[in-house]
């Protein structure tokens, strides 16, 4: 594995979120400043005392392992190729970071907020809103994973309110962009890297996340973050903690005061690695623009406004081959 150098000690800070439950303004401001500084430095930090029950985390990981232990035939029945909203299973090599040639050495399962069949966006087949797919034969999977999704969603919204405070805005500042968020939970299994031939492919190629905030729980090391000096550092696994990082939207909101950092996954151990990654993404039609308090007087913002859903779909098209093929077929049919 010498082609993948990595610094053994982590530079990722650990933040205690106990004061997140305080109503005292000075305490919340102090915590917001800690989170801002960590995000500005390396873009990643771990959190403890976050309020998500350990029993729920353990239960979720038991269900994740059971999901990926299903026979391949059962998993592909839930392929995300069957879903216009990108929900369901994908296999090893199906996902390719847009600037890399080799597919990732991981299999995954994506889901989002549970919507009903009579939801207007589902009925209208609105892009990225749709029904989750669920495995057969795992009776506790759906309820456990949805409860986990809801807990992570609530925690991420709390964190977002602290980012607003750090920007000098009211804590509710971003609420209007999260009325029906495309908040995604991604369950992942990484096989050991050493069972594959040496080459460019790794567990997950270097990338930044698309959305606002990402929350990760992992049962083994493997997540690596690029330091300011350009070295790759491995993020420590702290029992019960979540690893938090900011995505591309936070860079846009902050006018590049905060920057989404490159990270990758390489499972260097001889055992399976499982993770649950929650991505706080806003509404499809949310307009993302630089926050005025982050723009120096007399200067233009670093970014023009974008519609999140369109931005997200472009990223997905660049990542999944089957979406690119579908887009080509659609354009060809329109030309005919």
Structure description:
The chain is of the alpha+beta class and 336 residues long. The chain has one domain (14-335): Jelly Rolls (Sandwich). 30% of the residues lie in helices and 18% in strands. The protein has 8 helices and 14 strands. It has helices at residues 25-41, 54-68, 72-76, 120-123, 141-166, 248-253, 308-319, 321-335; strands spanning 14-16, 44-48, 88-90, 107-112, 184-190, 204-207, 213-218, 223-226, 232-234, 242-246, 263-265, 273-280, 287-288, 306-307. α2 crosses α5. It is globular.
Radius of gyration from CA coordinates: 20 Å
Largest sheet, spatial ordering of strands: 1-2-10-7-12-5-4-3
Mean pLDDT: 89
The CATH architecture is Sandwich
CATH topology: Jelly Rolls
- CATH homologous superfamily name? B-lactam Antibiotic, Isopenicillin N Synthase, Chain
Estimated structural class = alpha+beta
Q: Estimate the strand proportion.
A: 15-25%
Largest sheet: 8 strands, mixed
Shape: globular
Catalogue the unreliable spans. Answer: 327-334
* DSSP strand count: 14
Order of helices and strands: EHEHHEEHHEEEEEEHEEEEHH
Please give the CATH class.
Answer: Mainly Beta
N- to C-terminal distance: 50 Å
Number of helices: 8
Q: How many structural domains can be distinguished in the coordinates?
A: 1
Share of helix among residues? 25-40%
């Amino acid at each position: 594995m010498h082609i993948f150098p990595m610094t053994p000690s982590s530079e990722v800070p650990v933040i205690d979120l106990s004061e997140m439950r305080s109503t005292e303004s000075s305490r919340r401001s102090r915590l917001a400043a800690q989170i801002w500084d960590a995000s500005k430095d390396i873009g990643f930090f771990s959190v403890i005392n976050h309020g998500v029950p350990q029993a729920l985390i353990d239960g979720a990981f038991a269900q994740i392992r059971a999901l990926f232990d299903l026979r391949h035939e059962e998993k592909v029945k839930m392929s995300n190729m069957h879903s216009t909203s990108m929900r369901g299973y994908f296999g090893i090599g199906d996902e390719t970071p847009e600037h890399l040639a080799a597919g990732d050495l991981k299999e995954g399962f994506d889901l989002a907020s549970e919507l009903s069949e009579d939801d207007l966006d589902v009925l209208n087949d609105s892009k990225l809103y749709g029904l989750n797919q669920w495995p057969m034969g795992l009776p506790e999977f759906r309820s456990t994973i949805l409860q986990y999704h809801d807990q992570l969603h609530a925690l991420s919204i709390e964190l977002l309110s602290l980012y607003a405070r750090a920007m000098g805005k009211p804590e509710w500042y971003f609420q209007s962009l999260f009325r029906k968020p495309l908040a995604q939970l991604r369950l992942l299994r990484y096989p050991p890297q050493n069972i594959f031939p040496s080459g460019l492919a790794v567990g997950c190629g270097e990338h930044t996340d698309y959305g606002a905030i990402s929350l990760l729980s992992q049962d083994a090391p493997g997540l690596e973050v690029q330091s300011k000096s350009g070295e790759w550092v491995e993020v420590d696994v702290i029992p019960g903690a979540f690893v938090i990082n900011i995505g591309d939207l936070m860079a846009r909101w902050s006018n590049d005061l905060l920057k989404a950092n490159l990270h990758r996954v390489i499972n260097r151990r001889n055992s399976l690695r499982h993770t649950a990654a929650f991505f706080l993404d806003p509404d499809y039609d949310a307009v993302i623009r630089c926050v005025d308090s982050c723009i120096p007087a007399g200067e233009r913002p670093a970014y023009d406004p974008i519609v999140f859903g369109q931005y997200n779909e472009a990223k997905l098209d660049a990542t999944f081959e089957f979406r690119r093929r579908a887009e080509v077929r659609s354009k060809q049919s329109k030309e005919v």
